[in-house]
Specification:
The protein is an alpha/beta fold and 307 residues long. It has ten helices and 13 strands. It comes from Hydrogenophaga borbori.
């Protein structure tokens, strides 16, 4: 029996191209064999959080084991660390070990890409990215490769981080520049991704009527990126969407706006509905099913190759 395949960060990224990963996520949402129990969340003694996130379908079983330590930048370490362990669900063989932060970044951006494909009134941009960290970079790459976006505007509390992401966008052949006022930039950008630390509302202006917003940074009920008035405005004039029903108790932006989140359609619901009219606010909180979709994409080339 062959040992499990080990994928470092670069190899994990190469195995998960954004358009193919978005397709894999859509396929997973239509698969009745997928089972995703509630994740286990444990506080760490120094203030971080440890997550254990299992999922399975008829062919593949996974567990993502990651830690999240918000202030790790002060230590010269990434905020998210860990791995995704991939098994053959039929015979229990370990197939692969994937880099956890890379899977998290790419599957989160691919979920937003699928949501934009499904819900966005227009997908040509310009794209405004608020927050120039790991998720800002992943979403830039995903929307460029999956939607063909060519114009990007980047806003960040750190000018250096914004300029670094602008430079990366230009290396990809995009027309990119830094903006200092994200609220003002909303008037020019029908595509918006917010990927901030989400400790307080960063965006207060109303979006365009043809806007698609992917709100990524807030993944607990106490976090938010968007002012409550903005969320209520979009709910009244357009449409809301959440990634899964787990958002019912995690979608801080919507919960703090006083909205009835359990009645908000999920991405799976919207895949079976016509594209809505007006602005769209998509809340992307995270789910182990997205990690399973990534593992399925990798495992497709491994199952049957190990004896």
């Amino acid at each position: 029996m062959s040992p499990p395949r080990l994928y470092a960060a670069e190899a994990t990224a190469a195995a998960l191209p954004y358009p193919a990963l978005a397709d894999a996520i859509a396929a997973l949402l239509r698969d009745p064999t997928v089972k995703v129990p509630a994740r286990t969340v444990l506080p760490l003694p120094a203030g971080g959080t440890f997550f254990a996130m299992p999922a399975t379908d008829a062919r593949v079983a996974i567990t993502k084991l990651i830690s999240f330590v918000a202030d790790n930048a002060t230590r010269g370490l990434p905020a998210i660390q860990g791995d995704v362990v991939v098994f053959d669900a039929r015979d229990g063989r370990r197939l692969a070990l994937l880099d956890g932060p890379t899977v998290t970044a790419r599957r989160t951006a691919a979920v937003s890409l699928l949501a934009a494909r499904t819900l966005a009134p227009r997908t040509d941009g310009p794209l405004l990215i608020v927050g120039a960290g790991v998720q800002g970079r992943a979403h830039l790459e995903a929307f460029a490769s999956g939607l063909g976006v060519r114009q990007v505007r980047v806003a960040s509390r750190s000018a250096a981080s914004a300029e670094a992401l602008v430079a990366h966008a230009r290396r990809l052949g995009l027309d990119a520049r830094r903006v200092d006022d994200a609220d003002a930039a909303l008037a020019d950008c029908p595509l918006v991704v917010s990927a901030t630390p989400a400790q307080a509302a960063s965006l207060h202006a109303l979006p365009r009527d043809d806007a698609f917003i992917a709100a990524v940074g807030a993944f607990t009920p106490t976090m938010l990126e968007w002012a409550p008035d903005v969320c209520r405005h979009v709910a009244a004039r357009g449409a809301l969407a959440v990634d899964t029903r787990d958002a019912d108790h995690e979608a801080g932006d919507l919960l703090q706006a006083g909205l009835d989140v359990p009645t908000v359609p999920t991405l799976a619901d919207w895949l079976a509905r016509p594209r809505p009219a007006g602005p769209v606010f998509f809340k992307n909180c995270g789910w182990a099913g997205w990690d399973l979709a990534a593992a399925r994409l990798v495992a497709a080339g491994l199952i049957g190759t190990q004896a």
